[in-house]
Amino acid sequence: MPFRRSKGLVKWIFENQHKMQSVRRCSSLARYKEMEDSAASEHDVSGPKTRPEITPEISFKHDDLQVRLAAPYQLQTKPDAVELGFGKYFTDHMLKIHYSKHLGGWQKPEITPFENLSLHPAAKALHYAIQLFEGMKAYRGVDDKIRLFRPELNMERMNLAAQRSGLPMFDGQELIRCITRLIQIDQEWVPHSETSTLYVRPTLIGTEPTFGIMEPESALLFVILSPVSAYYQTRGDGAVSIFADPAVVRAFPGGVGNRKVGSNYGPTIEATARAAKLGHQQVLWLFGPDRELTEVGAMNIFMVYINDQGERQLSTPPLNGLILPGVTRRSILELASQWEDLVVKEEVITMDRLEDLNDRGRLLELFGAGTAVVVTPIANVGYLHRNIRVPTTSQPRPVYRRLRDTLLAIQYGHVDHPYAKVIA
């Protein structure tokens, strides 16, 4: 049956609680982390084969958090939901945590009125892209409670990026507690809507004012909040068109394609602008002589097709060092692997394979997934002067919609689920 984020969806999940319990046992965080490590070690021939320690012994503490509230004249005017767009407006407060090696490391975290940063012109973040960020969302549920979606995974990924960038690591649970307090203070900025959310942007930058290319001795971790609505301007059915350009790559083996650092995103702007001139919303990033699919825009990509055994199969490229380990990606794999009518697999997908499946009528769906977009259907792929039409939105029981509605039901509190962390 088609899934709708409605009473029908809630009823289905209630009636299938026995399956949901098996999800929690079979796809636990520890089990999936082992699978992820195994995939990374199998495909990534560079770098260490063991998972690095990402929680330092010394970190800032939420118990030391200092709060300075905005004065009435510093409060921002809240925009209407229809005006939000993505990342154009910001809340009244921000979180800042300074790091200084000479002062013993992390300093006390503080929440202050939203303000501009003061940086030395020689700050390493400005010259060598020694910076990283995360993307999370706070959702106002049907019960008016505010939830975060698996924030511990964002903290893990942020620490891995910090380690790769020579930036200081921290205790992720302490940052979650600080972020929770920030959201509680600015909770009225969390939209009273299921089409809008509060985007949470933790950022870590190197601030040491020297030109030496080495790990910075000072840094700044800050978190800002932005109420947002839809990321893309899509067609009436919500689908997008993407452009596969073999002439450009997003990441390469041994690089930082699997880390959320700013240098992964700036160089994509020109290629995305060229794709837009051809009528596409995003770029499908390919790699290698076989033109393997890696990501689409800033999203992970998924394909649904009829496999050689006549089964519906959901596939996504493996974590081989080129691909960001998305929180939404991981959640989709964990949830969908429990559905008895769907085979779920991580596998290399090439453009030749995609074209062949489409030509034979076996390609059913393409969609992107990520925090900003949740799940976005793809209806067209521009490739080598050809448009590959994908029947994603015309399926009688589309997988992308079932996944999107299941994720939104969890995020907005239609069902209780361990993925959702209630904060207020």
TrEMBL record:
User: What PROSITE patterns would the database entry show?
Assistant: AA_TRANSFER_CLASS_4
User: Which cofactor names does the annotation list?
Assistant: pyridoxal 5'-phosphate
- Keyword Amino-acid biosynthesis part of the UniProt annotation: yes
Gene Ontology cellular component list: mitochondrion
Annotated coiled-coil positions are none
Per the record, the GO terms for biological process are: L-leucine biosynthetic process; L-valine biosynthetic process
State which residue ranges cross the membrane.
Answer: none
Q: List UniProt keywords, sorted A-Z.
A: Amino-acid biosynthesis, Aminotransferase, Branched-chain amino acid biosynthesis, Pyridoxal phosphate, Transferase
Tagged with keyword Transmembrane helix: no
Q: Name one Pfam family in it.
A: Aminotran_4
Record field: catalytic activity: L-isoleucine + 2-oxoglutarate = (S)-3-methyl-2-oxopentanoate + L-glutamate; L-leucine + 2-oxoglutarate = 4-methyl-2-oxopentanoate + L-glutamate; L-valine + 2-oxoglutarate = 3-methyl-2-oxobutanoate + L-glutamate
Give the Gene Ontology MF terms in alphabetical order.
L-isoleucine-2-oxoglutarate transaminase activity; L-leucine-2-oxoglutarate transaminase activity; L-valine-2-oxoglutarate transaminase activity
Q: What EC number is given for this enzyme?
A: 2.6.1.42
Q: Which CDD domains match?
A: BCAT_beta_family
Q: Indicate the family of this protein.
A: Belongs to the class-IV pyridoxal-phosphate-dependent aminotransferase family.
Q: Which NCBIfam families match?
A: ilvE_II, PRK13357.1
Name recorded for this polypeptide: Branched-chain-amino-acid aminotransferase
Species of origin reads Danaus plexippus plexippus
